[in-house]
Write a structure and sequence with these properties.
This protein has 394 residues and is an alpha+beta fold. The protein has helices spanning 12-23, 36-41, 50-58, 63-68, 88-91, 102-115, 164-167, 236-246, 249-254, 298-319, 323-350, 357-372, 375-386; strands spanning 5-8, 28-31, 47-48, 70-72, 74-79, 82-87, 97-99, 120-121, 125-130, 138-143, 146-151, 154-157, 175-190, 200-204, 207-213, 219-226, 260-274, 277-278, 281-283, 289-290. The protein has a domain at 5-73 and 99-178 and 270-370: FAD/NAD(P)-binding domain (3-Layer(bba) Sandwich). Helix 1 (12-23) packs parallel to helix 10 (298-319).
């Protein structure tokens, strides 16, 4: 098979890149090791920045998002039992975010690709990337017992943290930065109405909690738990009971419990790979960076990577210019590190770190006290949460 761009990974990053390239008349094939149903079963982020919203509109897949997504102008911080609202719209000149589940976004992109008859190979096994330092990279994969080869101009590694693309690069050419946090998020998804119209981030004596949502009838809740905890040790009743202990009276009065649709524990880490370009192979999304979910930056940073990469490839094919692909890594990393910093900072602000001792707890309390009583402090949170401008250089 011959194509212009081979995209490895059919998650949101890979599908969005494929859609943007298709709109520009550039051929691409997507290879995915899992089934389509498995990809859709992944429960992930649900907060979209304006940059991400605009990009989905540009790709022509934003209609259902605008119809069913929930626009949020703020969120609440519940600190020691007291609510403090961060009015994002007022603090940022009217900027907002949208609640729209990653599963729904992925489904929209899948449907658009299928409607256009574009090639996506699911259950592609033993994927291997070769010759990405040459003008003619090759990708091998196995399906139905047959070995196949894709010859291409470029490879886009959108295959996640454990994907083959980053692993194919010699270790000497990669610098990795990583911080692993000493706790995880126990998440529960339920078909129950949200406890609040906006998200509630909780810093309680018992640890962090988050009251989130996917729609007016579907809720997503999280609890900070030790990494040693196992999902099967948490019954639904135990989850709801612990959540109640971390909420205030107002939230508990509105909390509707129910059977879990999905329950899992996700470890938290900050991770960045440098660079993001290796010859004619590029890393995008989780293949190149991971953020703790506290700041809702993972999907949005992946979307920015895709915007920069799609623009660079379109520039290459339409203008025969390599400026965009040459600058891809540095341009992405500048924004990635800002997102990483905010996610790290917000995680430290809202979670318990027992290993930091009593002085660490006092530092956290003092910082919260400043932020919550300072318009400048609240604006710092709001500006980062809604997403910095694409080419923010200040």
């Amino acid at each position: 098979m011959r194509t212009q761009v081979a995209i490895i990974g059919a998650g949101p990053a890979g599908l969005l890149l494929g859609q943007l390239l298709h709109k520009a008349g550039i051929d691409a094939v997507i290879l995915e090791r899992q089934t389509a149903d498995h990809v859709l079963s992944r429960i992930r982020a649900g907060i979209l920045e304006q940059v991400c919203i605009d990009l989905l509109d540009e790709a022509g897949v934003g209609e259902r998002m605008h119809r069913e997504g929930l626009t949020h102008e703020g969120f609440e911080l519940l600190i020691d039992g007291r609510r403090h609202r961060v009015d994002m719209a007022a603090l940022t000149g009217g900027k907002t975010v949208m609640v729209y589940g990653q599963t729904e976004l992925t489904r929209d992109l899948m449907d658009a690709r299928a409607a256009a008859g574009l090639p996506t190979v699911y259950q592609a096994g033993d994927v291997a990337v070769h010759d990405f330092d040459t003008a003619q990279p090759r990708v091998h994969y196995t399906r139905d017992g047959q070995r196949h080869e894709v010859v291409c101009d470029f490879v886009a590694g959108c295959d996640g943290f454990h994907g083959v693309c980053r692993a194919s690069v010699p270790r000497a050419r990669v610098t990795e930065f990583e911080k692993v946090y000493p706790f995880g998020w126990l998440g529960l998804l339920a078909d129950t109405p949200p406890v609040n119209d906006e998200l509630i981030y909780v810093n309680s004596a018992r640890g962090f909690a988050l009251c989130s949502q996917r729609s007016h009838t579907r809720s997503r809740y999280y609890l900070q738990v030790p990494l040693t905890d196992r999902v099967d040790s948490w019954s639904d009743d135990a989850f709801w009971a612990e959540l109640r202990l971390r909420l205030d009276d107002e939230a508990n009065a509105r909390l509707v419990t129910g059977a879990s649709l999905e329950k899992s524990i996700a470890p938290l880490r900050s991770f960045v790979t440098e660079p993001l370009r290796f010859g004619r192979m590029f890393l995008a999304g989780d293949a190149g960076h991971i953020v703790p979910p506290t700041g809702a930056k993972g999907l949005n940073l992946a979307a920015t990577d895709v915007k920069y990469l799609a623009g660079a490839l379109i520039e290459y094919y339409q203008e025969r210019s390599e400026a965009g692909i040459d600058g891809y890594s540095a341009r992405c990393l500048k924004r990635i590190w800002r997102g990483e910093r905010f996610s790290w900072w917000f995680t430290h602000l809202m979670h318990h770190f027992p290993e930091d001792g009593a002085i660490g707890e006092r530092f956290q309390q003092a910082e919260l006290d400043y932020l919550l009583h300072s318009e400048s402090g609240l604006r710092t949170i709001a500006e980062n949460y809604v997403g910095l401008p694409l080419d923010f250089v200040a």
